[in-house]
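ok so i was messing around last nite and threw this chain in just to see what happens. nothing serious, just curious
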Amino acid sequence: MSENLDLVRSIVEAWERGDFTSAEWADDKIEFVLPDGPDPGSWTGIAAMGEAWGRRISTAESFRIAAEEFRELDDERVLVLTPVGGRSKTHGLDLGQMSRKGATLFHISDGKVTRLVPYFDRDRAFADLGLEG
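result:
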């Protein structure tokens, strides 16, 4: 198993426990991209990533994420397939019942995540990356 895969596994394990507080793994100039969902955009830097990520997960009560599969795409990228659950604060819908299958793409250089791209729609991630589902 590569160092990049080990790094991503450690990040996702914290997220699975509901711990989104650490950014030790992030490059100071990390690019955080939300390509789809209700609030798409791109931000640069750890503070901006924290604000954007916080807004996204604050729309759900009991937000939870779990890794379904880790795919090492090349020497710099790891894709994590992530079914996402929780309950929408706005609509009261159980996100798990909506069968939302997401994915998160990690770009890594010199032991730090330089670009983080969480997708709401796994099919969009596969299409963007030219992968088969």
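not much to say yet. The beta strands are 26-34, 41-44, 60-65, 69-72, 77-88, 101-109, 112-119.
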